[in-house]
Design a protein that fits this description.
By secondary structure, the protein is α/β, with parallel strands linked by helices. Helices cover about 40% and strands about 20% of the residues. Belongs to the leucine-binding protein family.
Length: about 425
Amino acid sequence: MTFFKRAPLAAAALFIAATAAQAQPATYKVAYIDPLSGAFANVGELMLAHLRFAVDDLNAKGALPGGQKMQLLQFDSKLSAQESQSALQAAIDQGAQVIVTGGSGSSVVAALVQSVNRWNERNPGKELIVMNHSSIDPDLTGKNCSFWHFQTEANTAMKMKAIANYIKKTPDIKKIYLLNQDYAHGKQWASYGRQMVGAARPDIQFVGEQLHPIGRVKDFAPYVTNIKAAGADSVISGNWGQDMTLLLKAAGDAGLNLRYFNHSAGSVPGTVLAVSQAKIGQLTWVAEWHPGEADTPKVDALAKAYKAKMKQDFLAPRIEMTLRLLAAGVNKAGSTDSMKVAKAMEDMTFESVVGPVRMRGEDHQLLLPQVVNTIAPVDGKTVRVGWDGTNYGFRTDAVYTGNELAQGTECKMVRPAQ
């Protein structure tokens, strides 16, 4: 009889415990896959710090519905498509629902997107979303677009359009050399440069073109010699990380005063320092914001809070914005179900620190403003703040809205049936 009296009590206790467990907020797991070792580890660590800040802030503010918390998992891509595939499987095994990437290069991101497409086809109800904060190959939102991929950075064509518009109004640029990393994005930066700058300024001469291995050149002196021999006054280069800083050093050592036109190198640690040490040459790049930009109170406040917490400088609003867009999509969907979140983010307008941005539904390309700016000495007027411990900062040359730079797309989006 004792047994039968206690059994209902035990069952009730188990039921209450199970109910309590189910009531606990779920963890929304986001996996970061980007380089955390090797030549571009400093780039990956910078991006990771921006994402950590966003996660902490979102969780502190209860930004996800139902008391859910966002958890950031981290994996080293080692700048390799193969290593990224291993990282993807590890992320899946740990319950990730979202992959955040972009700093590994477009070829790696493209491989991740393809793998996610295959996973999602085979695992309905367990789909993954890819949030791409920095790989800007137009094919990712063009002919190779995916319903599961969202790009939160302006693509190569948008950035080159901004640069071409600026060069059109800069008559002292006459002879351009194309020097780029030998991978998909480097080749595209060169191609768009020749096409778009050539169309904007038919009088410009393209006097040479070279590709070099990504992350493996230790001395750019031979490339600088070729640039000098060609008589170039400017270089269109998609180089980033050490490939840009070493190029700047070699040109400075050779006494070659060049203008460089780039997509994002100015936001990478060490670039401003390299320009200041070279003392000659100007690097012009394109981003949604630059430190010291006038009339950006929301970004300034965010940058101040970031530095206070992370003990380092804030450089890229779009990276931490990526997770805020994701959180907005979750709230709009009222669920962390990947299918619902992806549909919610399509054509979603978001009030960001750099102004309103829109995730274009037809190809999942974010339309956000772009600022053409040049690394230059602080003068208290056009350059207000020094960076990287130097007296060099950023000068605003031109500002364009996302709509002004928007391009057509080859995307023929295939959406899931349900």
